[in-house]
Amino acid sequence: MKCAIGRVDGLEATPLPAVFADHDCRNNRLAWLGIGADGFLDAARVAIERHGADRVALVVGTSTASIGATEEAYRHLDAGRFPAHLRNPLLHTPHSLGLFLEAALRTRGPCLTVATACSSSAKIFAKAERLIRLGLADAAILAGVDTLCGSVLFGFNSLELISPEACRPFDAARRGISVGEAAGFALLEREGAASAPRLLGYGESSDAYHMSTPHPQGLGARMALVDALARAGLAPGDVDYINLHGTATVKNDAVEAALVADVFPPGTRASSTKGWTGHTLGAAGILETVVTLLAMERDLVPGMLNSTTPDPLCGPQLAFANETRAIRVALSNSFGFGGNNCTLVFGNPRTH
């Protein structure tokens, strides 16, 4: 198997602090690295102190969790059982990320894991909004973390979705995805700082058309998009920028390009940033949310790295090169296997 991957260096040589030794695995190491970036850990602890540990929810999105640790345990079976040093039940569970972060942050509110493939860490924004709106929490710490493992690499390869070179979203000669890994964090509060971007709405759908192929007319993606705009009280013409799911597979990009061309006016700008990051699976939603918010902050529509020749199905909305443009309202699309779709709507604090 020949493919381009994005791998975070140094995780193998950087164990978790000794107090978290029972949670030590590659996925949780990446989570610990991510939560310490840009002062987020300090901000999270301040929020927990302000609201109270039992009023802060922890909502995590991941598709692989610590499956790499489970793969290792299977490779070392002893008389049909995991060897004693690899038998840790805190790791061999889809909830390992949430359990680790709950221990690290000492939150006591709802702790939920969302695992809907590549839409996982987009859907956590919707889940957190509902928890806050229903009075079950006053704030939510959101985490999306996925690391590379054999199941992912060999699984995508078996589906013939892996590109042998760096991916090229919406390019006429695209050949598939490049797999990456990432950790992203966000803090969602009922009343945030005036300078903070606003979550204006979200839309979700589950069309269940096929386990690994999007609906040919983009039914599920359209439902999520329409739902998001309706919840935000916006029309397509109000949207300045869309961060597309844009995996660089033949079918996904064709369906999404057709949907954007059909729904949005020519002046709306849209791009996929997976050429820069690779497809980070369960972490893609929150990673691309961060990219979208940075684009709003910097008045920059990011272009599509590696993509040079637009597929004929692409409408005038797609931006292949970086563009300077004020962004008041932005969307972020995340579509997962099994028809699990989510669109998020954000407002620029300078205009909302």
UniProtKB/TrEMBL annotation:
Entry keyword annotation includes Transferase: yes
UniProt keyword annotation of Transferase present: yes
Classification via InterPro entries: Beta-ketoacyl_synthase (IPR000794), Ketoacyl_synth_C (IPR014031), Ketoacyl_synth_N (IPR014030), PKS_Beta-ketoAc_synthase_dom (IPR020841), Thiolase-like (IPR016039)
Biochemical pathway: Lipid metabolism
SMART domains listed in its UniProt record: PKS_KS (SM00825)
Domain Ketosynthase family 3 (KS3): from-to ranges: 1-348
PROSITE patterns membership: KS3_2
Family matches, as Pfam families: ketoacyl-synt, Ketoacyl-synt_C
Protein keywords: Transferase
Protein family according to the UniProt entry: Belongs to the thiolase-like superfamily. Beta-ketoacyl-ACP synthases family.
PANTHER family listed in its UniProt record: BETA-KETOACYL SYNTHASE, POLYKETIDE SYNTHASE-RELATED
Name assigned to this protein: Beta-ketoacyl-[acyl-carrier-protein] synthase family protein
